[in-house]
From TrEMBL:
Lineage: Bacteria, Bacillati, Bacillota, Bacilli, Bacillales
Location of the PDZ domain: 65-156
InterPro entries in the cross-refs: ClpP/crotonase-like_dom_sf, PDZ, PDZ_sf, Peptidase_S41A, Tail-specific_protease
Protein name, entry field: PDZ domain-containing protein
Matching Pfam families: PDZ_2, Peptidase_S41
Transmembrane segments: none
GO cellular component terms, semicolon-separated: outer membrane-bounded periplasmic space
Keywords per UniProt: Hydrolase, Protease, Serine protease, Signal
This protein's record includes keyword Hydrolase: yes
Family as reported in the entry's similarity comment: Belongs to the peptidase S41A family.
Amino acid sequence: MKKLRIYVLSLIALCVFFTTSVAYAAEPLDEVKQLVKKYYYPNVSESVLNSTSIRDLTKQLDPYSVYMTKEEYKDFTNSIDMKLVGIGVTIEEHANGLKIISTIKGGPAANGGILAGDIIKEVDGKNLVGEAVQTTIGLITGKENTKVTLTIYRSKTNSTFTKTLFRKVINIPNVETEKLAGNIGYIRLNSYADNSSKEIQKAIKSMPGMKGWIFDLRSNGGGYITAAEEVIGLFPKAQVAYLFKYKDSETYYTEPIKQKIRWNAPVSITMDGNSASASEMTVASLKDQKAAKLYGQTTYGKGVMQQVFSLKDGSQLKLTTGEFMGPKNTKIQKKGITPNVKTPVGKEIEYSHRDFLKQQLKGYNKLSNINQKTAQKTITIKNSTKMNWSTMKNAKVSLLQIGGKQQSIKVQKTSKLQLKLTPNKQLKPGTKYYVVLTSKTKKSKSAYAELNITK
């Protein structure tokens, strides 16, 4: 295989977020045809090249090849860089319109009662069936405080209704961080933007002393390929970024772009069916090279790259020009990447965090599980043959939420050879914890118990 060293233009690997309609007046059809014939991957038929409009031509290509006006391209790049004015949703194409994957907390859609799974059938009376997501961004986005009316189908209730919302500036931090129990650092990346690797490095630096990291790529639809190369360059064990093949070519490989600050402890990655494109490039690379452990569900399955061509009239053609694979030639397109540990939807963080905490508790005695209702304010730890009372009463007691933070507690030692723990905040139903009793002497073993909170 040859090493691919140079890109003429930025390649974009994106699974889309929003949607609109395109005006095709005075379109540069001949220019588009020449580009498609020369660069489209894997190939194109003469019948497609005989199309009489750009719209007809691109409809016969793959879903990621789209013609955009200058304004639409600006909206498109803004969505990658998380600079948005709209209703606060992430979406994907659906046979009946646009399916909402998630709503952004505090955004107009979430505040208006719109739910993940809802399908937008119309925007301001415009039927969205058959419209490409990338060319419909302008219908939902727009100027701040302008209104937009959506016709929505909700499968859970088999109902169709309209909802009028006012567009707002959607402030989405591209990188989100949190310190989890047991000194496990959590970093979420929402999009592969130009400054993603710098923001991740800043986040790593802001949390010194972490014993492990959870890197969250759930619902990350991708972005710029150079950003993916930089993100992969954060992993010390990653020596190859990805394999790449374009039209009528051999298979090439690309090295990661090494970063100054790298992950300094083991990393788990969480992913789901909406992790796409550049996210899949990342997880395929890391899985093939055993550079991280993957948790979640099989990813979306977008393994093709797009190159953006600027046309003479200022419009843009985003065209699929190649396919990328994992370093071991792992196929991504239409297959996705399977995790090392499959988890239920919504439990990805909990499973990965649990494994980190279990690693820390190796050598501890495992006590019986505790099942307790949320109404019960006190947790009782009774004397155990695995841990004698003298050890218990002198132990350091910690309450670690699995998938969350360490909880503050009050510890009371009783004369009945038991400990009573009172959390400072009420524990929520459905949450799980480790009650950890760390012995202060080497003669006695430490111990832990799993605490399950029910309704």
